[in-house]
Amino acid sequence: MGTPRETRAEQAEEVIERLEAEYPDSTISLRYSNRLELLIAVILSAQCTDERVNRETEHLFEKYDGPADYVEVPQDELAADLDSITYYNNKAGYIQSACEAILEDHGGEVPDTMDELTELSGVGRKTANVVLQHGHDVVEGIVVDTHVQRLSRRLGLTEEKRPEAIEQELMGIVPEGYWQQFTHLCIDHGRAICTARNPDCSGCVLADICPSEKGDSDVDLASGEPW
Length: 227
Prior knowledge:
Blueprint lengths: L7 H15 L12 H11 L4 H14 L3 H6 L2 H7 L6 H18 L8 H5 L6 H11 L10 H9 L8 H9 L7 H14 L26 E2 L4 E2 L1
Antiparallel strand pairs: 1-2
Helix pairs in contact: 2-3, 2-8, 5-6, 9-11
């Protein structure tokens, strides 16, 4: 079992410093060329890997150019274009509804506020944060995906379970200038080392400060279950 820093704020800063050294080029992995493509890619990424989303959107973004294209196509056809994506029927509906609202209520442009974005179908706070950060250069919070949720609990940064509550707690301990980058660092480390089922604690640069480290700890703090 690693020994965390004395306070959660100190722990967060140490985690960021070490992960920045480990992943100096950490950034968003979804591919897009404009705000609408970003919004659609993030909607599709829910419970689906970014790698698969990128494969699907490569041809999707060639076929559909703007919100009107997504609205005018039959939903069955759009769903068929997404059929390798999890919950593709539901996501096709979300995309069409969101694009309709973008046309009718926002002059064809992806909105730039949290409230307006979360009014769109298929858009929760996590998706809105990604679109704000990478589409509008507006950082209002921390994107809490499954990697951020898992690592934050394992590293003793939070005991909260819900993404919204985790975000609020992290915003109090992660320096504001790192709110965006913190997510990317957690994602990279979660994919490479701190995986959900079998983390490689022996190869982890955070092992000595991680209270979930498997060498001595009996419990995975992310799940609360024994290793």
